[in-house]
Amino acid sequence: MKLFFLLSLFFFIIHLFTIPCYSKTFDFDFHEIKGCPENSTCTSESGKLYIKWNDLLKSLNSKTTNTQLKKANLLEDFRKHYGIPIDFWIKDNIPSNISPWIVTWDSPCLEHQKNNSNSNSNDKNNGPKIQIAEAFVKNTVKNTHDKNLNLNLENKNIFLKPLLIEYAKDDIETYYLSSEDNPNYVINKNIMILKEADGVFFNLQISANGNWKIIDYDFTNKENNKNNDDINCPKTLTNHFVKQINKNNFYRYFYCKKIKDLSSKKEFTALVALRVPFNKLFKSFS
Description:
Helix content is 21%, strand content 28%. By secondary structure, it is of the alpha+beta class. Strands 5, 6, 7, 8, 9, 10, 11, 12 and 13 form a 9-stranded mixed sheet that branches. A 4-stranded antiparallel sheet has the order 2-3-1-4. The radius of gyration is 20 Å and the shape is globular. The relative contact order is 0.13.
């Protein structure tokens, strides 16, 4: 009995210290605003978009005769009109012109629960508050103005996950992804991300200039990356990231991996940057 109690206590403590800093809930039935996710700060504008999105997913799941191409075309049409749900981080306050379109959750990560009023203090317990956020995004092209775009990379309070790929000595491209995306392939300098929403799988293609497109592409017969483990990051990538992308030091951790180009059959080195580590072995910029 004593051993059972000690084991239960041990696993409870482990659970407390391993809560992911990107955790959020997606039950849509318990929010006071129709369509909004549970425990979120959400407006009626966003709630209506979630209702449209969930209705589309239900339709795609119920129609077994739909081909993968037809599903991709319907999802692409939705992306063009409304965007698709994308996760990212918000620092401090959300700009008023886009706040109706951004849904936020308080982060369970202790590092994110800072005191805004003392953000300039050297005390480690102070600093800007970081929230988990989600919005319906059409693309991440800079200087694009659309009330439903929801994201603008020029905004200093909004942070997506940057991925840098070194194609050649003086050829480094930067892509901005959802905080939960992990691409494994490139085709003609477009990264390919397999996404899933309520049992519906689709491929999101992202170019370096921020153009997005949902396409029908079958990866089942493609050879997986032979080496998908973390590798040492070359100085060319880390220096470029620090000087060009991470000037405000928002991203604290990074790792490098090989990513396969299906068009050239070559493998390139990619650097992925994070606000918080998902693995204790990730390296820190600080």
